[in-house]
Amino acid sequence: MGKPAPAYKRILLKLSGESLTGEKDFGIQASVLNRFAAEVEKAHLLGVQIGIVIGGGNIFRGLSEKAKEMDRVQADYMGMLATIINSLALQDALEKKNMHTRVMTAIEMHEVAEPFIRRRAIRHLEKDRVVIFAGGTGNPYFSTDTAAVLRAMEIEADVIVKGTRVDGVYDHDPEKVKDAFKFDEISYMDVVSRGLKIMDSTAITLSMDNKLPIIVFNFNRQDNLKRLVMGESVGTKVQE
Question: pLDDT digit string (tens) for 93-137?
């Protein structure tokens, strides 16, 4: 008998920009990048095709305190550029582990990345390249959560896996409420009605309308991504 096959052939991994700061308040910590790359490598070696969307909140967020005095559209474009910086940093860490990668941007920037073209992105994935989607949707007023759902649908991903620092979805913030209840599964509508901050409402609604499952899991725990793609019960699954 051969090795068991992964439960998912193609995934979209969503990471926050803030996760790159590690113990610091802002910026990119090399040790965190290397750890993330190691976890992606484990899943990739199983034959899983991986797309990644990473936020820019460690550098600049359009809705942050820093952006309060700014024009919203201008601030959002700055946030999109921050995601491109993070994507290039992640690309470097992945390629140091001998993974073939591409960064594709919603904002054209030919000197550093390819423009996002759906068919080309799918071809890269079929050739076992890790594709990092940068620049959000390319439009202001949309979060990188929404960009992740949009890209997941465009590349026909089986699932969105959202890496966080907690074990899944809870009824209250588990870092603040000691006896918070963890859901193993929860519906899209429950997420919205309970006001759970997994992703913004636009991203959740888009996932619901297209029946795209979301798994929220602790990306800081070693081998969690590998276990998840092999079909183990990791984190919380959001579906109908």
Answer: 999 999 999 999 999 999 999 999 999 999 999 999 999 999 999
Average pLDDT (60-88) is 87
Dig out the tokens for 194 from the structure: 């309970």
Q: Does pLDDT of 63 surpass 70?
A: no
Domains parsed from the chain with CATH numbers: 10-239 (3.40.1160.10)
Angle at 153 between CA 148 and CA 158, to 5 degrees: 95
Q: What is the per-residue DSSP string for the chain?
A: --PPPPS-SEEEEEE-GGGGGTTSSSS--HHHHHHHHHHHHHHHHTT-EEEEEE--TTT--TTSGGGTTS-HHHHHHHHHHHHHHHHHHHHHHHHTTT--EEEEESS--TTTSEEP-HHHHHHHHHTT-EEEEESTTSSTT--HHHHHHHHHHHTT-SEEEEEESSSSEESS-TTT-TTPPEESEEEHHHHHHHT--SS-HHHHHHHHHTT--EEEEETTSTTHHHHHHTT---SEEEE-
Within 13 Å of residue 11, how many CA atoms lie on the same side as its CB?
A: 26
